[in-house]
Amino acid sequence: MASVETAAEHERILREIESTDTNCIGPTLRSVYDGQEHGLFMEKLDARIRNHDREIEKMCNHHFQGFVDSITELLKVRGEAQKLKSQVIETNVRLQEDGKVLIGSMEELKQCRVQQRNIATTIDKLALCLPVLEMYSRLQEQMRAKRYYPALRTLEQLEHTCLPRAGQYRFCSIMAENIPKLRTLIQDTAMTQLRDFLESIRKHSDKIGETAIKQAQLQRSLDSSVTLQPRALIGRRGRKEAAAVTESSGEGGSPLSEQDSGILDVEDEEEEDVPGAQDLVDFSPVYRCLHIYTVLGLRDVFENYYRKQRRKQARLVLQPHSNMHETLEGYRRYFNQIVGFFVVEDHILHTTQGLVNRAYVEELWELALSKIVAALRTHSSYCDDPDLVLDLKNLIVLFADTLQGYGFPVSQLFDMLLEMREQYGEILLKRWNITFRQILDQDNFSPIPVSTEQEYRQYTSQFPLQDPELEKLSFPKKLPFSEFVPKAYCQLKEFIYACLKYSEDLHLSSTEIDDMIRKSTNLLLTRTLSNCLQYAIKKKNVGLAELVQVIINTTHLEQSCHFLEEFITNITNVPPETANATKLYGTATFKDARHAAEAEIYTSLNAKIDQFLQLADYDWMSAAQSSGGLTTSDYLVDLITFLRSTFSVFTNLPGMPVEHATLPGKVAQTACMSACKHISTSLMQLLLDPEVRQISIGALHQLNVDLKECESFARAGPVAGFQGDTLLLAFSDLRQVGLCLLRGPHSFVSSSFCSPSSSPHCLSSASSSSLFPPSLPVFIFFLHHVVFMFHSSLNA
């Protein structure tokens, strides 16, 4: 059983060897040698080989005759083949000879084809490289021409389009390496130009602002003729739109102008053709730098830098010079710089997209407005010249109108101007105080003589004098007042005009202007003019004639107050009966001044009387003389003479047909009564002098003579208007004392020491039905007389 399986296995292996490639029989033979029957296998292999050999031999024997025939035919063919070979060799030799030219031509053609292919390849490569070189050359030209924004555009196109197409060439690599450097160079150069621009507009902001203010002033003056002259001015918005169109029409949105200067030179071809403020500035550095940084993706960096630098410049612009208040030019330069700064910012706001926004500009303006108001308040407080304050006000109004034309709110400036109005009023009051004092110092306090109608009309045109009686008089004649009256009245109107000038262009209503003028005029009357009149009245060496003239002057000025009311009404067009309208206090002012002058007259007159009384030299122990041998004391004669001449001056005092006015002669009457009372009181004081220990009868007789002279003066009526012997009442007490001393002590105890028949000099003689009881001075003299009598008895 095992031998059968072995024989079958060997048979399988032999078939596998016959049908398998010899390279793959290794594993098969290994399986045979691994077994124990390899000898038997070899026997079968040998038998198989012999079997195949017999088959091969049978096959060869079967085909041998055919093989022999084939060999024979082959030998025949060999001869023919040799002939054919010889012919082929000959043909080949001939072909080689004939093909050498063709081969040369083919080589040349091949070379030409290669060259043609190389040329085509070169052309293709050059077609890719030439745009790179051309663009790089253009880039260099733009860099040399400082056209940095187009250069940056070219650089972007070169980097992202041309260089990738050109391939990996060395010059391309070099260009690629230089691109970041060029970009940095453009960025730095653009920033340098921006810094130069910022520095330039910082230096020239004064010129920019001056031009903008001139344009606003010209616009305001030509508003009425704009319709007749369409191109009188180019509107601010129109210029901004034109600038925006110019900006968008350039390459890639860049401005056409490539100048780096921030300020352009503009010549005024026509006097009325004032260029716009923006026309003076070349904003291309800003636009260029903005576009460059936008392309570089650094727009935020640029915006922050620009705003930061402009804020710093704003702080510098808003810092006024320490001596700005000294001249108007200092204020003008300050305002020009501020206007120039905000004109630039406003133009940037409207011609760029987002570089500055409305909130940023408003924030800057709020900061500027607070600093401007603070600076003006500080510096204007040093100003004491009303003309400078008025010019400053006009400059501030023009400054405010200019910025308002650019859309900035300026209400705070006008509020500050209203505050400055109070300061302006105080400065005006100080100037007019000096003016009034100068007028008073130069006044001669005498009526104005006029010799011709022309002179008369000249004065009446300056002062509203309405006196029909005076007009009827022939020339030459005198105006009742002195030069002070027309000059003061003209100055009052000048003051009103000065107040009106300040109120112009402040956007105030007529009622507000009227109220402001009236309040300021009241201050001028009640404070300044009143103080000046008091100064004139109270100053030293003012005579009674001057004081009388002051009364006359104030009387006429008081009468002119309603003309001032009409004058204010005419210039403000506000009727005086308007509700809450302020009234002028001139009447009260001039009344107070007149009362002060009257009081000064009384005081001066009494002082002059005291000077005469100081010359009194009574000998209180003189011996008694007969009444016929006594004469009036010299000092009293001089005093009476002085009083007569003085009271004659008072006859020039005018009547005043107004309410509470001084009646004609009332001042003279009061002064005369006051003088008489003062004389009586002074003589009484002489008797009451503590140093007078004794009084002789002779001294009393001398005093009685002097008293008679005083009574004679009073009885003569030095001033008209007294009823009866009213003026004698001033000497009543002194007369009673004199009578009592002359009669002796018994007169003091009589219930009626004086009767109509007792003495021709008794004061009661003027009134036969009245008696005068002893007063306190009489009682004192009674005591004095008792003491005198007591001393006399002791001496006896």
Walk me through this protein's architecture.
By secondary structure, this protein is mostly helical. Among the domains are: 184 residues, no CATH class; 178 residues, Tetracycline Repressor, domain 2 (Orthogonal Bundle); 129 residues, Up-down Bundle (Methane Monooxygenase Hydroxylase, Chain G, domain 1). Helices cover 71% and strands 1% of the residues. The protein has 25 helices and 2 strands. The protein has a two-stranded antiparallel ribbon with strand order 1-2. The longest helix has 107 residues. The C terminus is likely disordered. One of its GO terms (cellular component) is plasma membrane. It comes from Xiphophorus maculatus (Southern platyfish). Belongs to the SEC15 family. InterPro entries: EXOC6/Sec15 (IPR007225), EXOC6/Sec15_C (IPR046361), EXOC6/Sec15_C_dom1 (IPR042045), EXOC6_Sec15_N (IPR048359), EXOC6PINT-1/Sec15/Tip20_C_dom2 (IPR042044).
Descriptive terms for the model:
796 residues, mainly alpha, Tetracycline Repressor, domain 2, Methane Monooxygenase Hydroxylase, Chain G, domain 1, two-stranded antiparallel sheet, 71% helix, 1% strand, rod-shaped, disordered C terminus, EXOC6/Sec15_C
